[in-house]
Design brief:
Chain A: Its main location: membrane. Chain A: Pathway: Energy metabolism; oxidative phosphorylation. Chain A: Its cofactor is ferriheme a; Cu cation. The complex is a heterodimer. By secondary structure, chain A is mainly α. Chain A contains 19 helices and 2 strands. Chain B folds into 2 domains: 56 residues; 32 residues. The chains are: A mainly alpha, B mainly alpha.
Chain lengths: 660, 93
């Protein structure tokens, strides 16, 4: 019995016990349901073992949406606690745990899989490839991410959640001040999913460099692919820093090392330094693909090609370099001298320049365009002013002298939510609506979509703009309550109302998916939005081999050329297509990594060592495996193509364009 | 026969051995920390470059430029990170 005591929650509450029961019931329901409807085989053959980039993308998408609701539940609890002065909804410990998990879940387990979902779904289609460069590695990336996410999420029912903030600064995150296993969960879960992210980075860099269709030079790549390419380069250079920092932090907590302690030659500030060497590039890993999605959407719905293609590319290259030169602005008040702070102030402000270039390029793309106000376009139009406000307050924060006033206040919280929500979350929802028909075969209802957009926008403004004011008045972030005398009460109540509106907005997304699944027409053709880039040049839903014949590229919007300027996209005869085999190994490795992580969290060395050996066994087996993939033969391709009943050609393509 | 003899590789091998010996001397001879560290850093970087060019064949395929651009980018970021951290945590603290 003593053995099991380590799994108990250090700070239990009725809410956590209720979640335990709920999790148990849902898990049982899922298992019973799958068995009753005999879906285990389907799940295994179609999803768990798949190496198809589209299916992996959809799994990322579902995970991201689930995590969005997990992180959103945290957010609404925080806002409810702060809505009135000296509220008793949560105590200090629970509040600490909730803001920590909110941050980690939203950045690493919601935003990251969301952008990986779009990279997986779109990039191979946009460059005319059959799959990514290393399909099995891609599956492994997903399962490692999933193992990490699940490991992190069980923390609040087994052993206790991390409570040292999403930045997990030492010495607070050290054993002296964080006594529960929560911070072990943080270290291990992020480590496991981080390895997956690094593999994705390598995979997509290779895919984009090596697998482009004939004629597609680098400067003819669609903008989303460019943004994914730059983001993945940043992944490859930034994530190793996190890996090493987490390893050192784990060594401190589990093996008594002294990297980040305040005694024995350790340096606690080194953690903050490493964390942000990774952490600042990380925000660009998130925002650049979002910029790419906006570029695609704005150009499609303005009916114009993207203004300033070259300057868009160069501004992203510059952002990628500058993103590595600004990390100190996250800790201007840590104690380094004025010289250092001045250098990093200037580099930080410099980032506003390429970002401004991009903003103007989007505006000029819309200039004199024939704008269609669809849901994706609404998000993009809402993004421009809201994100600009977030950027401007960012330049305010970049002034290191003034930062002493803003640091650690709600002003900062308002600023980064103001960039991340209109920047990343709106882009993800815009992309979700825009690409939904390509992968699921029906358009999400526009009326409900517009309602969602307005709920989210109004909710966002109400929730976060008051924080600028309370922040300047001195309301500190991460404080679980405040006294009535501070006068923060009314504005925090407004924030709560805004957060509630956003919560309703996110529920309408789920309702929209359900409603559209029931009611939307299915005969939408392969190009419902009258789009411009290559991902729309194949059937809907996309066949597993993507393109029956490899497309011939003439420009960055080659599909538009084929529709309007008589460019012949597909030439020659259909030939056999070489495809990668399915594999269950990535899924198994995901489970093994989960066991490794869980054993390390609780310092259970025997299962940890056994599971680690399992990892190496999987890798060794792979090295000796002869796997040459398989071929889809011409006959089969022709049958599949015939089923779609439409001819994809430059002259006589179907004209079932839905004008919304 | 002359074309078959891998002169470049043999030279590279000898040179890398020499570099290793020089680095080892730092341990066996009595010199100040600064001098020893300088020798180690210089020999280490030459050694790494030698390995990349001679034995890992960087620059021999048609992606040569891409490889060197990549290495340069990596070196810039590594240098910025290391010296930035030193500046923040030691020199200007």
């Amino acid at each position: 019995m003593e053995f099991f005591q380590r799994f108990a929650i250090p700070h239990p509450s009725p809410a956590i016990y209720a979640s335990m029961v709920a999790i148990a019931l849902v898990s049982i329901a899922i298992v019973v349901g799958l068995t009753y409807f005999k879906k285990w085989g389907y799940l295994w053959h179609e999803w768990f073992t798949t190496v198809d980039h589209k299916k992996i993308g959809i799994m990322y998408l579902i995970s991201a949406l689930l995590m969005l609701f997990r992180g959103g539940a945290d957010a609404i609890m925080m806002r409810a606690q702060l809505a009135t002065p000296e509220a008793k909804l949560l105590d200090a410990q629970h509040y600490n745990e909730i803001f920590t998990t909110h941050g980690v879940v939203m950045i690493l387990f919601m935003a990251m899989p969301f952008i990986f979902a779009f990279m997986n779904l779109i990039v191979p289609l946009q460059i005319g490839a059959r799959d990514v460069a290393f399909p099995r590695l891609n599956a492994l990336s997903f399962w490692l991410f999933f193992a990490g996410a699940m490991l992190f999420n069980i923390s609040f029912v087994i052993g206790g959640s991390p409570d040292a903030g999403w930045t997990s600064y030492f010495p607070l995150a050290g054993n002296d001040f964080s006594t529960s296993v929560g911070t072990n969960y943080y270290m291990l879960a992020i480590q496991i999913s981080g390895i997956g992210s690094l593999m994705t980075g390598i995979n997509f860099c290779t895919t984009i460099l090596k697998m482009r269709a004939p004629g597609m030079t680098l400067m003819k790549m669609p903008m989303f692919t460019w943004s994914a390419f730059i983001a993945n380069i940043i992944v490859v250079f930034a994530f190793p820093v996190l890996t090493v920092a987490l390893l050192m932090g784990t060594a401190d907590r589990l093996f008594g090392a002294n990297f980040f302690t305040t005694a024995n030659g350790g340096m606690d500030m080194l953690w903050a330094n490493f964390f942000w060497v990774w952490g600042h590039p990380e925000v660009y890993i998130l925002i650049l693909p979002a910029f790419g999605l906006y570029s695609e959407i704005i150009s499609t719905f303005s009916g114009r090609n993207l203004y300033g293609y070259k300057s868009m590319v160069w501004s992203m290259v510059l952002i990628s370099l500058l993103s590595f030169l600004v990390w100190t602005h996250h800790f201007f008040t840590m104690g380094q001298g004025a010289l250092t702070n001045s250098i990093f102030s200037i580099t930080t402000m410099a980032i506003a320049v390429p970002t401004g270039v991009k903003i103007f390029n989007w505006l000029f793309t819309m200039w004199k365009g024939k704008i269609r106000f669809t849901v994706p376009m609404l998000y993009s139009i809402g993004f421009i002013p809201l994100f600009t406000i977030g950027g401007v307050t960012g330049v305010m924060l970049a002034m290191s002298a003034a930062d002493y006033q803003y640091h650690n206040t709600m002003f900062l919280v308002a600023h980064f939510h103001n960039t991340i929500i209109p920047g990343v979350v709106f882009a993800m929802l815009a992309g979700l609506t825009y690409y939904w028909p390509k992968f699921f075969g029906f358009i999400l209802n526009e009326k409900i979509g517009k309602l969602t957009f307005w709920l989210l926008t109004v909710g966002f403004v109400l929730a976060f703009f008051p924080m600028y004011i309370t922040g300047l008045d001195g309301q500190a972030r991460r404080m679980y309550t405040y006294s009535e005398a501070t006068g923060f009460g009314p504005l925090n109540m407004v924030s709560f109302v805004g957060a509630a509106l956003m919560a309703i907005g996110f529920v309408t997304i789920v309702y929209n998916i359900y409603y559209s699944f029931k009611n939307s027409p299915r005969n939408i053709g392969s190009d419902p939005w009258d789009a411009r880039s290559l991902e729309w040049a194949t059937h809907t839903p996309v066949p597993e081999y993507n393109f029956a014949r490899v497309p011939q590229i003439s420009s960055s919007q080659t599909f538009w050329d084929s529709k309007k300027n008589g460019h012949a996209l597909f030439k020659g005869e259909i030939e056999d297509i070489h495809m990668p085999n399915k594999s269950g190994v990535p899924f198994v490795m995901g489970i093994i990594f989960f066991i490794v992580g869980f054993s390390f969290v609780f310092a259970l060395w025997v299962p940890a060592v056994i599971a680690l050996i399992g990892v190496f066994v999987c890798m060794t087996l792979r090295s000796f495996e002869q796997d040459h993939g398989y071929h889809i033969h011409v006959k089969e391709i022709k049958e599949t193509e015939a089923k779609y009943g439409e001819v994809l050609n430059s002259e006589d393509r179907p004209r079932t364009t839905t004008r919304v | 026969m002359k074309e078959l003899f891998p002169a470049k590789q043999v030279m590279g091998f000898v040179f890398s051995l020499i570099l290793t010996v020089i680095a080892l001397l730092v341990y066996y001879t009595d010199m100040s920390f600064a001098v020893g560290m300088t020798i180690l850093l210089v020999t280490a970087f030459i050694q790494a470059f030698l390995q990349l060019v001679v034995f890992m064949h960087a620059g021999e395929s048609k992606e040569g430029t891409a490889i060197y651009t990549n290495i340069l980018y990596g070196v810039i970021i590594a240098v910025v990170t290391v010296f930035g951290s030193l500046l923040i945590l030691i020199w200007d603290m």
